[in-house]
Design goal:
The two termini are 34 Å apart. Helix content is 43%, strand content 23%. It folds into 3 domains: 72 residues, Arc Repressor Mutant, subunit A (Orthogonal Bundle); 72 residues, Alpha-Beta Plaits (2-Layer Sandwich), CATH 3.30.70.980; 73 residues, 2-Layer Sandwich (Alpha-Beta Plaits). 27% of the residues are buried. The protein is of the alpha+beta class and 246 residues long. It comes from Limosilactobacillus secaliphilus.
């Protein structure tokens, strides 16, 4: 039994690491797409794209994943990609929004619906859960190596046009109106801050704990969505154990 327990623990840690890596790659892919779509697809002429590509290299993201995200933005190969959002409830009734970038809506809709169904959840109509989220600009600054108190960081954030800030042990999370994100980002960069994230996102108004007996199904749903190349982001209104502080 001890051997089985050790294997189970190792496999559990590996699954958690794979899920975390998948989430990082998913976010970088979206950032690559947005940077290439907004500017020149040549990183030599697009500082923002170059910055994201450096982040991809630091995360050991496969080169083919990087190129696929850029190809989506440029329409390489004649493909036309569209953004579409799916809403539903995961196991335990937890609200989940799935942002996709696809060249085949029928394929993507079927795959997303299947992920919800296989995990004991259900896909809903447009607007079924989006009212539970608030669209905000989000800027994240890592605290590692940053000699800045929370009060000083808050003052700089407010001066830059932010509305609110949340501090964790790892980072400062700065919230803005979506329309003020770009100006706040530029103002903070001019102050010398190295930004880890600057994006418009969906923040849940409230988070609910995933029932203990539904955790496995919930994690299966998120993992299956993260492994879908058409999925560019997942917004969750639920948390597992200590994840409510993230």
């Amino acid at each position: 039994m001890s051997g089985h327990s050790k294997w189970h623990n190792i496999q559990g840690r590996k699954n958690a690491q794979d899920a975390k890596r998948g989430k990082i790659f998913q976010k970088i892919s979206r950032d690559l797409y947005q940077a290439a779509k907004a500017g020149d697809p040549d990183p030599d002429n697009n500082p923002q794209l170059r910055l994201v590509m450096e982040k991809a290299r630091a995360a050991n993201m496969p080169k083919q994943n990087v190129q696929r995200a850029i190809d989506k933005a440029t329409g390489a190969g004649g493909a036309h990609f569209e953004e579409t959002t799916y809403e539903g409830y995961g196991p335990g009734g937890v609200a989940v929004m799935v942002l996709c970038l696809t060249d085949n809506k029928n394929r993507t809709a079927a795959a997303v619906r299947s992920a919800f169904t296989h995990s004991g959840g259900s896909l809903g109509a447009s607007g079924s859960v989006s009212y539970l989220f608030k669209r905000l600009g989000l800027i994240e600054i890592l605290r590692d190596g940053l000699d800045k108190s929370e009060d000083d960081m808050l003052m700089d954030a407010l001066d830059a046009g932010a509305d609110d800030m949340k501090a964790t042990d790892e980072k400062f999370q700065i919230f803005t109106d979506p329309s003020a994100l770009t100006s706040a980002r530029d103002a903070l960069q001019k102050k010398g801050y190295d930004l880890d994230t600057a994006e418009v996102t969906m923040i849940p108004e409230n988070k609910t704990k995933v029932p203990d007996d539904k955790v496995g199904q919930y994690e299966h749903l998120i993992n299956e969505l993260q492994n879908n190349d058409d999925v560019s982001d997942i917004y969750e209104a639920g948390y597992v154990e200590s994840d409510d502080e993230d």
